[in-house]
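To fix ideas, we reproduce below a protein record of this kind.
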Amino acid sequence: MATFRLQGSKMLAVDMTGDSVKAKNGSMVAYDGRMAFKKLSGGGEGIRGMVTRRITGEQMTVMEVKGEGTCWFADRASEINLVQLRGDKLYVEASNLLCTEAGLRTGTTFTGMRGASQGNGLFTTTVEGHGQAALMSDGPAVVLRVGRDYPLTVDPGAYIAHQGDLRQSFQSGVTFRTFFGEGGGEAFQIRFEGDGLVYVQPSERNTIAGDV
């Protein structure tokens, strides 16, 4: 089984003994031992996955890395966060997904207006099963707990991922005054309710919401 470990906060080391992982294409920065790299179309889900991703706009170019030894992954000095999945599902922006164990299933799911506000279309990527996934963030991410009586509201540009039994809704503060530059400065937010975790980065990517 591949073993994920952080080497510093911006480098992922994966120890492999003949097994494989799926990683963002081009994210390998070094390896020892013997490794083989194979580009996968449409996130590694065959023709169906490729077509789905092209339709939804949640495209990501993924490679399969298989071998014996250690392979190191990184992407533009982004911070890396490890997530352990125990049969649950992780919802993550495709641009924030660095690497997963090969046994984890990836797919896409409808997110409605939340995805539109981020400029990523109406869909987001899912990772499901048992194993580890490595997420990227612009700066060290924080993991915020959402409880039954403690909903959480997040800026779409700072959102990375979430997991657990959560419901999300899209909040808009756009009013007539917004278009005259007199809005509150936070025109769109994502509200999470239920029980789970939300991963947030200390930086806001450019989004459609941020331009309003």
